[in-house]
UniProtKB/TrEMBL annotation, chains A, B:
Name the UniProt record assigns to this protein: Helix-turn-helix domain-containing protein
Domain of life: Bacteria
Gene3D superfamilies recorded: Winged helix-like DNA-binding domain superfamily/Winged helix DNA-binding domain
Domain HTH hxlR-type: 8-106
UniProt xrefs under PROSITE patterns: HTH_HXLR
Amino acid sequence: MESIYEKCPFMTTQRVLQGKWAIVVLYQLSTGTKRFNELEKLMPEVTRAVLTRQLRQLEDDKLINRKVYAEVPPRVEYSLSPLGDKFKKILDEIEIFGLEYINELKITK
Amino acid sequence: MESIYEKCPFMTTQRVLQGKWAIVVLYQLSTGTKRFNELEKLMPEVTRAVLTRQLRQLEDDKLINRKVYAEVPPRVEYSLSPLGDKFKKILDEIEIFGLEYINELKITK
DNA sequence: CAGGATCCCCCTGGATACTG
DNA sequence: CAGTATCCAGGGGGATCCTG
């Protein structure tokens, strides 16, 4: 890890958000705990392998929790960590901005 | 452009934030209009070519304005567009989150 | 059900050299 | 001063196939 990441809150957040599906996954989990295949259904554009990698990445970055139940068939639940919970504020603003952005460009173009 | 980008505010914002230096550039411009070489000095880790590309990308995405003055030596000023201005709210939350993130991981690790 | 293991390919960041 | 023009290498996304 480099020094700029440790000092600058913007670079730090940027690093966490690099994954193409990071924001959407965090959003999905912000509405509640989800199982793996629930996330799959909510995000049909993402393949399994990619979704798994994105989840691992967010887990490594301490934004989400992964809970495995020792059952058959297996059950795995993903949820926001305490740190991930603090990300919700960003998500709220992203949603507002995103909608405005979509609207604005619809008019302009 | 694909349909999911046009509909989902999270995907839309994600696309805009893909560039490695997007957030930092937006932050720098959120504190006021800057010339190209000011940005260079504020972000020494980024090379010229890369910074230029990032600026063009944000310009294409309508988040920043590029104003060229017909002078010698040339002067180019970058600033937030009206749309970019709306991004400030996200930046505020990113800063808060980033600082909390840095703090938390310092303690945990 | 929830993945793991590979492979491939493209895109993007970065380095370097040149310019109106 | 504020870029362009190339080139290169690495990594991440995506597809496909396999598994406890």
